[in-house]
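Quick illustration, no need to memorize.
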Amino acid sequence: MRRDFPAIDAAQRHDAAARRPLHLGGRAVGSVAAGALPALRAHAPWLQERDDGALDTALHGAALDAAFAATHAALRAQGLITGWRDETYAIVPAWGAPVLARIERAAARFWGTLTFGAHANGYVAGPDGRPSHLWIAQRSPHKATDPGQFDNLIGGGVPHGQTPFETLVREGWEEAGLAADLVRRATRGRVIDLQRALPDCAGHGLQREQLFVYDLALPPGLQPCNQDGEVASLQRLPVAEALALAAGDTMTVDAALATLDFALRWRLLGEREHAALTARTAGLFGAMPD
């Protein structure tokens, strides 16, 4: 049976020509929608437009952080930065690289800067030791992002000062009521490379994210329980049913891809479908860094 998995195509769907590169410290770190340039000319005088179209600045350190904060306040007032979180994200050119600036989480989509996420496929094994069921969450209808969509058991953004694994442990309790000792048993999967246009930030948003995927084996009798009110329900589904959700359009793109990564690594699909989806996802899934 052929399944579409629209999340594969969505993962890299964006118009690079419609954005202008953002440079900090001499390094490319993001991009800004061309349509947002008038607002930046008014509210980010610390940015210079180079002859090649890129945006650059001589500011660094605390002065750069303060400049970003002032610009974000103005852009938020104009509705160009939405979903304010009061969480700090770092601007880095790559995972593990030195931090070039610190910004509000919601602004990362406006600037198209690299962010990081951590997801876990919570599964129950059958008598043969292979996954037989997956725990699937349904997001609260009140969530600002992807309300009511299906999701992985654990998933969240990695704030400044945490590693993806530390985020996984924290979110394991908040989203599923799982003890830290249990979540620390999670095993490494792969990293998913996302770069897709989003309606965030008045249509100027870009999700440029590396999603760290883990597998977490759970005891058959365990019942996860959401703690933070951001999950409407948690259900344990046979693998085939969970994959059917991931192959459709009712699961978040991030979660659908994390579920597909799980299925490919565990070889849960038929050989022909496995080969076809491996080819379609070439370059999308990469090795997890140490």
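Residues 116-287 form a domain with the Nucleoside Triphosphate Pyrophosphohydrolase fold (CATH 3.90.79.10).
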